[in-house]
Amino acid sequence: MKKEERKHRLSLTLLVSAIVFAINLVTVALSGISVYMMIKTGVISSGNEYPSPVKSLMFMGGISLFIGACLVAIISRFSLKPVNRIVNQMNRLAAGDFKARLTLGKPINSHPTFVEVTESFNKMAEELENTELLRNDFINNFSHEFKTPIVSISGFAKLLKKGNLSEEQKRKYIDIIEEESLRFSAMATNVLNIAKVENQTILSDVTQFNLSEQLRSSILVLEGKWRSKNIDFCLDFGEHMISANEEMLKHVWINLIDNAIKFSPSGSTIDLTVNETKEHISVSVLNRGSEIPEEQKKRIFNKFYQADESHSSEGNGIGLALVKGVAELHNGSVSVSSANNVTEFTVILPKNT
Q1: Exposed/middle/buried for residue 185 (C-beta within 10 Å: 0-12, 13-18, 19+)
Q2: Whether the Cβ atoms of residue 267 and residue 230 lie closer than 8 Å to each other
Q3: Is residue 213 over pLDDT 50?
Q4: Nearest to 15 by CA among 151, 83, 81, 112
Q5: In which region does residue 97 sit, left (phi positive, over 0), alpha (psi from -120 to 50) or beta (all else)?
Q6: Alpha carbons 300 and 298: distance in angstroms, whole number
Q7: For residue range 177-212, what is the model confidence (pLDDT) as tens digits?
Q8: In 176-245, which ranges are E strands?
Q9: Which range has the worst mean pLDDT, 86-90, 114-118, 255-259, 306-310?
Q10: CATH fold for the domain made of 206-350
Q11: Residue spans per domain, the chain
């Protein structure tokens, strides 16, 4: 626990102790005054003699209990309001209402500890709401993307089974089945890769390799896609070495370049730039095409999220989540800028992980 947090906890403890002490003090004072007035008025006296000490203590104890119970009942109505609010909002969360937010009234909300409670609760509720959105994205997007290639493979396989097709039709249908099978395989591979990254807390298999050569190799892997759209590449980098997990980084570049090809218009150019400092290397992938709306920039790195909700373009919302996961596992980062029909993804990694 931080020093500042310990001070806040101590101040809250002292505040509660002071309130309890004040209640006890008021209770004893009122009890003493009540007993004194009863003695003066003769309510608890016997003749001209004062009551015995035991009898006075019994009266005083009884009056103290009565006054204390009344004070606690009155004060608890106000002091338990924040607790009731917390319980009510927790019940809303338990019932599935993830829009529940906690607001404590003044002056209690001015204390640092209650400010922390409010912020922690609201952050938890926001994370649960995001998780619910993620679950919906998974159901709506990912299930759709898995179903599409399966339906295509099944449909064209049935056509081949019926026969009465020309050799050209057979080759065309077989090519489609092969393409959809590879697409399905790529989705499954990305799911396995992101699961591996999320379950890995310590980076392993770190070696030193030529980053520039890996980028050029990644471009060649996707040659079929960028040639079919007549896309050209502008490579602005020399030879750069890096210490990292070679296999993981290869998935990063393939996903970013594939993403750039997907959203680039035919006949356009994709720019790859590498900048190196004393401690870091940054790789930028820039494409010219439709912009990413500002409200979607915060979500595109979430698993199974697709900016194109119509599913008119290929993709399953896993690639960018994988890029972010691998970058963070290397103690790096990934960012995106999109304006004037230009979108650029930048990955920053330490040279020596």
Answers
A1: exposed
A2: yes
A3: yes
A4: 112
A5: beta
A6: 6
A7: 888 887 777 777 777 777 777 666 677 788 999 999
A8: 206-210, 232-236, 241-245
A9: 306-310
A10: Heat Shock Protein 90 (3.30.565)
A11: 3-126, 206-350
